[in-house]
Amino acid sequence: MNEAKKIQSERFNSLASDWSNSDEAIRQAEKAVSVLGIQSRQSLLDVASGTGVILHALKQLQISPGHYLAMDISSAMLEKLHTAFPEAETACADFEQPFTCQRGFDYLLIYNSIPHFSDLDMLFTNAKRSLLPGGTFMIAHSRTRQGLKEHHQRIGYISERAPIPADEELALLAGKYDFDQLSFADEEFFCFTCRSKG
Fold it and tell me: Where would I find the Methyltransferase type domain in this sequence (predicted)?
């Protein structure tokens, strides 16, 4: 793990104890899960899962994945997730490093965390490796691009790049890594989906 990632991991470890999956946060996550389209018994890789807001949303929607894996760079976030969902499988890992799972997933979701990733090529590489043929890759955020930009201004956060990549950049990456059926939305919240070709 490089120095920047160590700092990021330590930062999220320090935040984990106070991190709350509020009712509003869960309702927002439910919207993304509904767009994703996952059904009970299908499989989901939840990248940068944090303390488990997507699991809370799945529970509220009465969806029981056949296989679920929560991945996060923060061990403390995963410990808190595991406290709420002891049956959940977790992996403390960096999705910007080469990653191979033993079995493919129907869905891969990066929710509310795309601003923390910089190596988008590795993100798409790992997504392609992790999904079954025809599997869906979604990048979603509870805020729109403009809403997230305004939020960052309010909290004084300065980023070297746009917090959410431009549609054109995502489309180029999807084509490069053999994804199709692209969909973009940025009205109520941001959502990008694509499908892994065979």
Answer: 45-139
3 state SS of 34? helix
**The domain spanning residue 181 has which CATH number?**
3.40.50.150
Burial class (CB in 10 A: 0-12, 13-18, 19+), 182: middle
Cβ-contact 137, 179 below 8 angstroms = yes
Confidence of residue 144 (pLDDT cuts 50, 70, 90): very high
- By percentage, how much of the chain surpasses pLDDT 70? 95
Domain, as residue range, for 114? 3-196
Number of compact structural domains in the chain: 1
Q: For every residue of 16-32, which 3-state class applies, written as one string?
A: HHHCCCCHHHHHHHHHH
Is a pLDDT exceeding 80 seen at residue 44?
yes
The model's pTM: 0.92
Question: What CA–CA distance (Å, rounded) separates 170 from 87?
Answer: 34
Give the DSSP letter string of 155-178: HT---SS-SS--HHHHHHHHHHTT
